Amino acid sequence: PQAVPFPPERGLTLLEAITRAGGFSRLADKSRVRIIRRDDKGQTSTFTVDADRLISGRSDSTWLLQVDDVIEVPERFL
Questions:
Q1: Would you call 15 helix, strand, or coil by DSSP?
Q2: What whole-number distance in Å separates Cα of residue 58 and Cα of residue 52?
């Protein structure tokens, strides 16, 4: 886990941020990646993303991140 610089001139996608942070570990549950986002009123929204679908091209979404988004990648159970 680490903070990743956010380039405001072009933005950052979910997969780019994960790559910049060192990528997925071998125990990562890529099907349940969470983006936690707080709006201007302090309300928190959580989005669960299947990164396996993004990686394989089976999703047309890129999940463009916003400043201060938090990404959580849980470990999968063996």
A1: helix
A2: 8
As given in the structure block, the two tokens for residue 56 are 């394989």
pLDDT tens track for 2-22: 788 888 888 899 999 999 999
Q: CB of 29 within 8 A of CB of 14?
A: no
Using an 8 Å Cβ cutoff, are 65 and 35 in contact? yes
CA dist 43 and 39 (Å) reads 5
Structure tokens at 46: 């959580």
Report whether 29 contacts 63 (CB < 8 A): no
Q: 35 - beta bridge partners?
A: 47, 71
